[in-house]
Amino acid sequence: MSNLFENQIPLMKPWLGLEEWEALKDVVLSGWVSQGPRVAEFEECVASFVGGKYAVATNSCTSAIHLALRISGVKEQDEVILPDFTCMADANAIIMANGLPVFADIDKRTYNLDPKRVEEKITLKTKAILAVDQIGLPAYLNSLMEIAKRYNLVLIDDAATSLGAKYEGKYLGGHGLTTTFSFHPRKMITTGEGGMLVTDDLQIAESARILRATGASVSDLERHKKKGVILQEYYTDGYNYRMTDIQAAIGIVQMKKLPEIIRQRNQQAEYYNKVFSEIDEIEIPFVPPYATHSFSSYLLKIKKGINLTPQDIITRMAEKNISCRFGIQPLHREPYFNNRKLSDADFPISCDIAKRSFFIPIFPGLKEDELKYIVSSLKEILLKR
Ligand SMILES: *Cc1c(COP(=O)(O)O)cnc(C)c1O
């Protein structure tokens, strides 16, 4: 296959190499390719890195969130509050659990759930809050935990893009909350597709393990080790949300690279911050003192009153062979939710940020001359209007 990334700087690119290739060879030759020892090892790697007790690997983050919601007892149109400024996967997971997604507006600096807006959305039907640590920045977890406690709600933290980001000095996943991660190539590390649920609660971990594998009380690997003499039983229905050992083998290698991935992304972000903070037309990402950013993406915002749209910038950057993207779009506006009659007026921040923001490339392996080219190209577009 030819290089898909030829002749342009992509928005992002996974950091994969011969180490992953070698790990794959071992799995294939071992003959055990479905969920097995490599998945268990990968779970251990992630749990010990983030400081959580138990990790349960899944085939995607969407399924991990679905499991977390189902285990929390979300059912029959129970309301689950989530940010308006996030991807459809979060709403999908709520819908899969038979819940009703209830959108809340975000904070204008962090682009994460505004706890005040969350509180306004709580009704007698509210069952859970699905917080999102958007594009690598931890949400206001303390305030959300306090609200969840006060109203007796479950709080789930979707850290899909934020593996390796810290909240108050501890990695996400290490705060005792049920936390989910994604291993899609657009996230911090990748297994092609994949997800993980991290929890300190043994009961939640056990339920997640059973639900991800058809509801069976015994795993394939256990049965194999006992040479088939144990019979699995079903006390619940379930899903096939298993990760394969092929994916997990890649994940184990990727976890070794994670500290370097975080370092490179932060170094690139620092360079962008330095240059772009001196340009009047745009605003750089805000990092509050309580957090460190994983910079799984780098989002710039055009200042109010500047006569340029993300569309203009993305188009002109594309002409220079640099791939940029629109910022996250408000979920309440998606045609799927038309029957809910949701109004833009209820989500002023989410609508405003969506209208003015755009992503520029950031990924491990992005070279210094490429960074400089991205910066000079964007400066030219912004300054020579
Ligand atoms: C990517 C993403 C997801 C979905 O992850 P998948 O692994 O693709 O299911 C969920 N939530 C957020 C915030 C994401 O960025």
Topology of helices and strands:
Layout (H helix, E strand, L loop, with lengths): L17 H13 L6 H14 L3 E5 L2 H11 L7 E5 L4 H9 L3 E5 L10 H7 L4 E7 L8 H10 L3 E5 L7 E2 L2 E2 L6 E5 L12 E5 L2 H11 L7 H6 L19 H32 L5 E2 L14 E5 L7 H10 L5 E2 L21 H9 E4 L7 H16 L2
Parallel strand pairs: 2-3, 2-4, 4-5, 5-8
Antiparallel strand pairs: 1-9, 6-7, 8-9, 10-11, 11-13, 12-13
Pyridoxal-5'-phosphate binds next to helix 3 and helix 4.
List keywords for this structure.
four-stranded antiparallel beta sheet; binds pyridoxal-5'-phosphate; alpha/beta; 385 residues; 12 helices; seven-stranded mixed beta sheet; single chain
Characterise the protein shown here:
With 385 residues, the chain is an alpha/beta fold. Helices cover 38% and strands 14% of the residues. It is built from 12 helices and 13 strands. The protein has a 7-stranded mixed beta sheet with strand order 1-9-8-5-4-2-3, with helices on both faces. Strand 6 and strand 7 form a beta hairpin. It is globular. The chain starts with 17 loop residues before the first helix and ends with a helix. 48% of the residues are buried. Pyridoxal-5'-phosphate (PLP) is lined by residues 60-62, 86-87, 89-90, 132, 158, 160-161, 182, 184, 195.
